[in-house]
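Justification of computing resources. Each target in the renewal requires a structure prediction run like the one illustrated here; the chain below, 663 residues long, is used simply to show the kind of job we budget for.
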Amino acid sequence: MDTEQFRKHGKEMVDYICEYLETIKNRRVTPTVNPGWLKNKIPLEAPTQPEPFDAIMKDVENIIMPGVTHWQHPRFHAYFPSGNSFPSILADMLSDSIACIGFSWAASPSCTELETIVLDWLGKAIGLPEEFLTFSEETSRNIDAVKNDDSETEIHNGKGGGVLQSSASECIFVCMLAARAQAIKRLRKLHPFIEEGVLLSKLMAYCSKESHSCVEKGAMMAFVKLRILEPDENNSLRGATLRQVMEQDEAMGLIPFFVSTTLGTTSCCSFDNIPEIGLVCQQFETVWLHVDAAYAGSAFICPEFRFLMNGVQYADSFNLNTNKWLLTNFDCSCLWVKDRFKLTCALVVDPLYLQHGYAGAVDYRHWGIPLSRRFRSLKLWFVLRTYGISGLQKYIRHHCQLAKRFERLVRSDNKYEVLNDVKMGLVCFRLKDDPTNKLNKKLLETINESGKLHMVPSLVHDKYVIRFCVVAEHATEDDIDYAWKIIKETAVTVIYNEQELKEKREEQVDEVFELSERKKKDDLAYRRSFFVRMVSDPKIYNPIIARSSPGSRRHTHLSSMDDDIHDPLSTSTSDSEDTMTQPASSWISWPLAFLFQGVFDDKEGSNDVPVRFRHLATKMHFKSKSKSPEHLATEESKSRRNSPVFPRKSSNVKTENESNKQK
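Resulting structure tokens:
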């Protein structure tokens, strides 16, 4: 592509960008694609031959855009704002055209010095103490003299300074590394004969449960311990909590060295108590206090919000993301430190090929992890000059007013509740009377699937909440009202569907219960019927009666089934009355098995009685224990007295002694 082609397609690209941002509200907020969808749209190998630019732009609209989540959409209310503005876009175009790699002052003096100046600009605009600035001003004359044209102002370098990093995560990580280096340096002086690895294992960092997850990740990468502390009822970390834990750790031989606090937490935009925490940190010589104000820090450009950063004078470092809430495109995270030499000492690596002869110049390669650095300060410079401090203040205040409007709408409906103190542009709300969080989860899921709005959840006081953040630069009251309308309409549908499901479940439970009760009643009726028949018909439970009743086949089985059963104690005799006959098997019901214990024990030689059960396709044998004649006689008399039927014939009962006499 030559210059003329670039000029032509560059104009086309600007037109496309303008058209995209003007009509973005007509697009669906979130895409409907699934993971892996793009590999079926684009070849898996790069083209061998060049392709026309028009074909590329056609694929942008037809292939790329259907898979884009539109963060600048007026219906996008997830996460935090993604800074964007035309001045920032134009500055990035210029930065990409210059394409310098500003790792040192010599590599690109303007890239380095503009970054230093604009960070001082912004630091002053948000009210940071002078210790955080690179250049501090001291007037040599009184106020009246300053008004004169010949007044002089002395400008000199301080110990502090600012630097642009890629993200707040990187800001926190490099500060943790600097704090670790300072703690190890001090400990090695006190304990020169202890290995550095042992000292490292004693270091302990601290943060709130509401802190961003990047603090935990930074501790993992820095190989230090991290203690996560519980905030108070307002989700604010308090000084007393921190002091108690730090003193306990010191008593256990651990060494507190780093505390990360937050102004404007991700979950609910809460604020840690910096004045209390700062005083606690002052009591520990090795502790580095960092303040993370990635989102809320931009609001401090408005004087009415600066009370929230009280106590920042105790901090050693402070960061905010202009690419969140200050209309500057990603990436542009600002970090200030009170003592830049403590930061650079932890990160200096100075090979010969990177050295230059300009002593005292700032080399930002010593201020962070990467060596290569883009000309990022251009876009912040463009934004600050195009909007001015007053324009940025107006933008921040407008977003806060819209958030308050949404809060009033939520509180006006008694089915909802707001769970955070709305100070900035974030509102955390939920449906009431949902202890399992099922309704709120379904509500958010349904809204996001519709593509009409996009929000994300969080936990506040261990409750599931929906985060509503004002994001778009040109958001209006109509956008807020539309969002609330969609939320209410969706909630009505979700609640109605949930009630229907609940009623269906209750009906199913009732049916199951009814069937269960009916079965119980039927079983009970059957048992009662059986016992009534048992009392009225003794043949049911007395197989001797069943056998002695010729012609009755109701409770006897086929005699052929037991033809091979013989009593080993019986003897052949011509006298029919002296003949021992083995009892035939009888059909009985399983619940009455216990009734047959001892039924045949008084029958001479009947120590093995076969019984067939009605509910089991098998035959069982009841065996009696051998007993003395006197005991048998006693049992016989008892059986005759207690028998519910009639006394047994004595001629059919022979004792063991009588059998032996016959032998």
